[in-house]
From TrEMBL, chain A:
Enzyme Commission designation: 1.3.-.-
One Pfam family hit: DHO_dh
Details of cofactor binding: Binds 1 FMN per subunit.
NCBIfam families from the UniProt entry: PRK07259.1, pyrD_sub1_fam
Organism: Halalkalibacillus sediminis
Protein name: Dihydroorotate dehydrogenase
InterPro entries, per database record: Aldolase_TIM (IPR013785), DHO_dehydrogenase (IPR050074), DHOD_1B (IPR033888), Dihydroorotate_DH_1 (IPR024920), Dihydroorotate_DH_1_2 (IPR012135), Dihydroorotate_DH_cat (IPR005720), Dihydroorotate_DH_CS (IPR001295), Dihydroorotate_DH_I (IPR049622)
Function, in words: Catalyzes the conversion of dihydroorotate to orotate with NAD(+) as electron acceptor.
Binding positions for FMN per the UniProt entry: 20, 44-45, 98, 126, 164, 190, 216, 242-243, 264-265
Residue ranges annotated for the Dihydroorotate dehydrogenase catalytic domain, each copy included: 3-285
Length: 306, 256
């Protein structure tokens, strides 16, 4: 069965990729399977300078999900280019770089540097990380700021630009429209929902950061609803994510309007999950009467107006 | 590191809320040093999204089993405690770097464990005792929490095992550091695992001799990709990953 998919200029052999932040820079997972099997790889967020991130504990379990507050820990854009990208260079699968920053200038600098590296085939703009004090989410909750930032990145980067939207907004459609207007080539949605847990013994938050981003199957219905809403108003390619664990989940995301999908938290539970989903996807599609991925996209759910 | 369905052979309570589990499979053959861990999936994973990292307490080469000793602290470990012989457990492992002891010979070693930090030190002591004299100090909250004292005593004359409890209900009353100071002069090296405040106290007390510390931290992936379980370090990058670079570190490598 043909699983290939085009996201604008970007050609993927299948629609499955790991989500940024859940796959490091790929090396660890290459011990478990050949990364060339993936549709694409989205690497951990890059910032201008190296970041340590938040104090630990940085993860907490929730019902059917988890909270994380890593805080964009990374070796900085130069460290990533120097030490992490060479490993990915020889792969026959597109590498998408996730770009973050505290200021527009930092975002632009990081995006420009990564756009100039041949290993990187697309940029994912991280305007939705809920775990950093400066940058991150405020870029993703104000449509004007998001629009401005998208424009600036497009000015310096010739690579396809996917803007990763935050679900922590009242009007997801407005955000999508704003970044499309500014020249985004695609959307990634959704990032994590801000959440919190409190330890009944200590009466304090479990995460050192206080709050964290909720991910996992618990947020899947939110992602489906938002992708469905945004699909009504745009033809931009959408990479859907939020709690995908099974091939049925993938089917549901594509029916909602996604063109490809990213797997996040499930990689922690099973390092082989992406490979297994790719292997099992044809059977699941057949089970529901589809002969190709294209047929699923054509069968997209368009009836509900929200 | 592999993913394997390990078969439960034994799973019994050996102290208050503390269970000993023996798991059979091929993974045992990959355990090349004490102090490594296995990462266990809880249930079918749909409710408990995160695996539980549990340190390896012992391996049995003849029967191909790995022994774990774990404490029930929540719903996930409670599920683990309910597994019975014949059940399968989804495990990733062996993870991380353990205690590097191939060069450690003819030394006087201090092994200091606290509570659920004791298990990996059992496997360690078993290996150390072949070439070294070992003093083991084990700290527990109270008598009902004490485990493995007899097992440590079985290692023979080259191992001396001392138990302390916080409330004095068993062994000496006090903290492991109260006793460790008596041996610090004569010891050439220490190995420790336990709660963070204990590790800090041990590190601060035994500054004169080389130390090896096994850390515990909440983990995400357990394979070094997610950066959930980092610890401040004196190395160039300023951090180490507990799951991949550790859980065992040199005492001068980590900032507790």
């Amino acid at each position: 069965m043909k699983l290939n998919v085009n996201l604008g200029e970007l050609s993927l052999k299948n629609p499955v990729m790991p989500a940024s932040g859940c796959f490091g820079f790929g090396k660890e997972f290459s011990e478990f399977y050949d990364l060339n099997q993936l549709g694409a790889i989205v690497i951990k967020a890059a910032t201008g300078e190296p970041r340590y991130g938040n104090e630990t504990p940085r993860v907490a379990e929730t019902a059917a999900g988890m909270l994380n507050a890593i805080g964009l820990q990374n070796p900085g854009v130069d460290g990533i280019i120097e030490r992490e990208l060479p490993f990915l260079e020889s792969l026959d699968t597109p590498v998408i770089a996730n770009v973050a920053g505290s200021t527009i200038e930092e975002y632009v600098m990081v995006a420009e540097k990564l756009s100039n590296v041949s290993t990187i085939e697309a940029i994912e703009l991280n305007i939705s990380c809920p775990n950093v004090k400066e940058g991150g989410i405020q870029f993703g909750t104000d449509p004007e700021v998001a629009q401005e930032l998208t424009k600036e990145i497009k000015r310096v980067s010739g690579k396809p630009l996917f803007v990763k939207l935050s679900p922590n907004v009242a009007d997801i459609v407005g955000m999508a429209k704003a970044v499309e207007h500014a020249g985004a080539d695609g959307l990634s949605m959704i990032n994590t929902l801000t959440g919190m847990r409190i330890d009944p013994h200590t009466k304090k938050p479990i995460l050192a950061n206080g709050t964290g981003g909720l991910s996992g199957p618990a947020i899947k219905p939110v992602a489906i609803r938002m992708i469905h809403q945004v699909r009504q108003i745009t033809d931009l390619p959408i990479i859907g994510m939020g709690g995908i664990t099974t091939t049925e989940d993938i089917l549901e995301f594509i029916l909602a309007g996604a063109d490809a999908i990213a797997v996040g938290t499930a990689n922690f539970q099973d390092p082989l999950v992406c490979k297994n989903l790719i292997d099992q996807l044809p059977n699941t599609l057949r089970k529901y009467g589809y002969e190709s991925l294209q047929e699923v996209r054509e069968a997209r759910c368009t009836q509900v107006s929200i | 590191m592999i993913q394997e369905q390990l078969e439960v052979c034994v799973n019994v309570e050996i102290a208050k809320d503390t269970f000993e589990m023996k798991l059979k499979g091929e993974m045992e053959q990959l355990v090349d040093q004490p102090g490594r861990f296995i990462h266990i999936k809880i249930g079918d994973g749909s409710f408990h999204m995160l695996r539980r990292p549990i340190s390896i307490a012992d391996v049995d080469k003849e029967n191909h089993t790995i022994t774990l000793v774990y404490k029930v602290t929540g719903k996930g470990t409670e599920w683990l405690s309910e597994r019975v012989a014949g059940d399968k457990v989804d495990a990733l492992g062996p993870g991380g770097q353990g205690f590097e002891i191939t060069e450690v010979k003819n030394e006087k070693i201090l092994v200091i464990g606290g509570g659920v930090g004791v298990p990996p030190l059992y496997h360690l002591t078993k290996e150390l005792v072949e070439n070294n004299d070992v003093t083991v100090i084990l700290g527990f909250q109270s008598k009902e929490a004490v485990f493995y004292e007899k097992e440590f005593n079985q290692f023979g004359d080259r191992v001396q095992t001392l138990v302390v409890t916080d409330d004095g209900s068993y062994g000496e009353k006090g903290l492991v550091t109260d006793i460790a100071s008596e041996f610090s002069q004569d010891s050439t090296r220490y190995f420790t695992c336990g709660p963070l405040p204990m590790l800090k106290a041990v590190k601060n007390q035994l500054v004169e001799i080389p130390g090896h510390i096994s850390l515990e931290e909440r983990m995400g992936c357990g394979i070094g990709a997610c950066f959930a379980c980092v610890c401040h370090s004196t190395n160039e990058s300023g951090y180490v990953k507990v799951c991949k670079d550790g859980p065992v570190f040199s005492s001068n490598e980590v900032i507790l």
